[in-house]
Amino acid sequence: MGQAKKIVLYGLAVFVLYTIITSPKRSAELVGVGFEGIASAAQGVGEFMTSLVN
To answer: How many CB atoms sit inside 10 A of residue 19's CB?
Structure first.
């Protein structure tokens, strides 16, 4: 099981590097979208906690 996990992890790393090398502009856009999603999720959690306190 551990060996399969390593193989999948290495395969994913190779895929990510290949994607970044072949289309860096698109990769940068996807990272930006990811950070926007994380920021909006954090804002939602903050608003939820604020409403619980009030």
So the answer is: 13
